[in-house]
Amino acid sequence: MTTASQDANTSPSHESWDRTKPREAIAAAADAHSNWGRWGEEDVHGTVNFITEDKRQQAAGLIRTGRTYSLSIEFGPDGPQNGVGRTNPIWAARALHVEDSGDVPFPPHGGGGVDDIVIMPLQAATQWDSLGHIFDRGRAWNGREARNVASYQGDAVTGIHTMAEPVVSRGVLLDVGRMFGTDGELPDGFAITSHHLQETIEAQGASSAVGRGDILLVRTGRLTRARREGWGTFAGGDAPGLSFETVGWLHGSEIAAIATDTWGVEVRPNEFDVPSFQPLHQVAIPHLGLLLGEIWNLDDLADACAEDGRYDFFLAAPPIPFYGAAGAPVNPVAVR
């Protein structure tokens, strides 16, 4: 297994950034860590290509107890969205037939049933971003012109439907919140660097080694706090998360995907001194081709991992294949 190390981090350090020039810093990181063409000109899977059939077979061997852990929060009207850009799901039940009153012609044999109707942004709760979700300077994943990917009819090229099958692999949890936080929780604005990730790996032990084709889960404890204190500004507000500095580490580790328990994976406020919005997304998605997951519920899994010291597991996390969508809900299931 290829293992990430501190040597994999070749991104500029915090000290070398010109924090007044996010455009230039993003361009430099993109040029240094681009995966364009790595899997051919027509590729739509990006780093998910690192997940091979052998990798999945190895992941299946991690199942020892058969215990399962859902890593999704509930999708419902009391979810994390505050109405700024996205809303929580709007759900309604349509009764087909609830009793044999004789007044309802369907069905005619005394049966009954209910249908449901849901209206929601596809990224309202636990979800994956597609590789067509973010562009950089007019370019989408693998160097495609964004106008040839995005349309009012959706993204037929790299829409989330393209990820319906392959996102099953070895999962690895790095509990950075437990390692560096207070009572298991990092404060808002805490930038998780490659050194924080590496120190967590070393502290958790051999089962935390991160390598090619793994799906990396990073727990910050931000969701833990939101569920205790209320959602507040959880969706779209300040949060702990990955530093822009981790671009090189993510590229060098050759992971297939990364997901966190925050709304946006990367640290908020973002790390530049002038307005910038999700600069790590701007490199990771269109240039690395890295699948990003947000609002994952990692607490129960983290407790189980801490109890027996095993931080890797079989993970099945395919999104709902909404054709052409820029993201979709997922109910990831870890099996230990």
TrEMBL record:
Q: Where is this region: Disordered?
A: 1-21
Q: Biological process GO annotation list?
A: L-tryptophan catabolic process to kynurenine
Q: Where is the composition biased (Polar residues)?
A: 1-14
The cross-references to InterPro entries, in alphabetical order and at most eight, read: KFase/CYL, KFase_sf
Instruction: Write down a Pfam family by its short name.
Output: Cyclase
> Which SUPFAM superfamilies does the annotation name?
Putative cyclase
Q: Which GO terms describe its molecular function?
A: arylformamidase activity
Know the name of this protein?
A: Cyclase
| Organism, scientific name | Streptomyces mangrovisoli
